[in-house]
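Annex B, item 7. Sequence and structure tokens for protein A, then protein B.
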Amino acid sequence: MIKKETLIYLIIFGIITSCVNYQIEINSIEFNKNVNKNRNCKLDYPNLENNPNLKKLRSKYKIDNLVNSAKTDLEKAIILLNWTNNRWKHNGKNKPSNDDALTILEEAESGKKFRCVEYGIVLSETLNSIGIPARVIGLKTKNVETAKSGAGHVATEAYISEINKWIFLDPQMNYIPYLNETPLNAVEYQKAISTDRNKIELINSKGKLNKRKTKSITKWIYKYLYYFDTSLNQEKGKQCQGKNRLMLVPKNAKKPKIFQIKYKIDNCLYTNNLNDFYIKP
């Protein structure tokens, strides 16, 4: 039988350990918010009429039926977030034979498991197939150049017309972050964790995640919310100024040219302007 003093010690130790484990090293980052009148490259999204792969994706997987009960684009996005999350179990090492949603889903049906990258691709293309502008978003840590591993994560952002803003969706982890009942984009998510993390709610089709899981995910994701990048054009192969990606870099931060010591980052245009990255589609 545990003595009263021992029980009290264990309870106190558990509370202290829990608090320590939730400590986050805050990255105070800022971006330029002025309107960029000199923007030469813009973010483009698929033309559904000219994209047979998106038409096939929409038809083969009966996407319209999946979202038939939804009344808003946000509700559709939440349904497809959950649907994507349930297509396979995560495996951080496997790659598909081709990086498009149809290939990924077909190979997942045969039992293959994939990375966060593939979750982001499938959700983005699925949303685009029903006319919701969406993009795969790469997240990178502050030490992206020197970390041997674990310097990146991939998710999705979608533009939700009825609330006139971009929102962040993590199909691998199956949630959308909210603050004060408003869904957040990736940069807003970073700021919310830095200043109001106890008020953040993570929501999916089943409702709010419990506090323990919310804290765990919040602590895990935060280190990745430093550099943000996406394709300049969701139609593969198109470039601007010889580059095919746009990276949002905090003011006064280094522009990373290496990923995890040995992989070159040479395909990005860099900006610290939020209006470049979050332009309305």
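Protein B:
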Amino acid sequence: MVIRVRLGAKDDIDALVEVECSCVETWHHYSPEGRGDQASYDELNPWERVMHGGPWMDATALTEYWKRIERLGIKPLIAELNGKVVGHLDAIFSEEPQLGKFLYIDVLKVHKAYRRLGIAETIIKQAERLAKREKTKLMLVQPEEYEGPSGLTYRSCGFEKAFETFDLKATVNHSELSSNTPLVSIPQTEEVPLRTHVLLCGWYNISVKMWDNSVNPYLELLHAFSCSQLTLSTLTNKGNYFLHLKQDYFNHGRGILCLWTPIRIGVKALKQVFQVARLSLRH
């Protein structure tokens, strides 16, 4: 048995969708109210399919998402067994002030019918060779569960826990914002401030991809959810802060905050920025 790993292309879209869909047990309708009745794959529209695991669940959505793959220089690695696509891994070269340069494993999936054959490990090893070729010494991944099957796969390939992420919640108050707090919309041409700012909140992906999600809103297909979002910068006496605010798809009374802060932050300035975020969400 020989597992071949190569760089993916748009011609692989249908095969990638098959790999991802193999892992879904049941499909459901979706609406702005949330998950609905059970349905077959063919009964769902593209954005309903996307809600089961992202753009890889639908060929139309993945074709649209491929623009982001090309824009960010994502390396889609494809695993083949006897000429059939049986797994894939998306790798992104990036950097963060606290980490330096690294290769991030963004997506890893193996076809359900071809698991326990060493496919995941083979693709990860290919990503490691890619990192070495680019003289990158650090590989980073955020498994679904560190103690679960995905975490075990990475630990078996030599990965170790680097840091923890936490979910924090804050209520929105009704005080007014100081008039001397300037707010400016961030244009799509603004580049991610990788060397000067840290992604302090909203770390469910690396800074470069979260920034792209903010200035290039994710998938036109999801606009059916009527979800508002703001991407702003605000200047304090401690420097410029960038924030992305996004309503929850199914609960508009709740939102998600992504916040980029200068490497050196002040508590007073940070409180001011959080107040900006709260008031922006309220409005």
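Comment on protein B: The chain has a mean pLDDT of 86.
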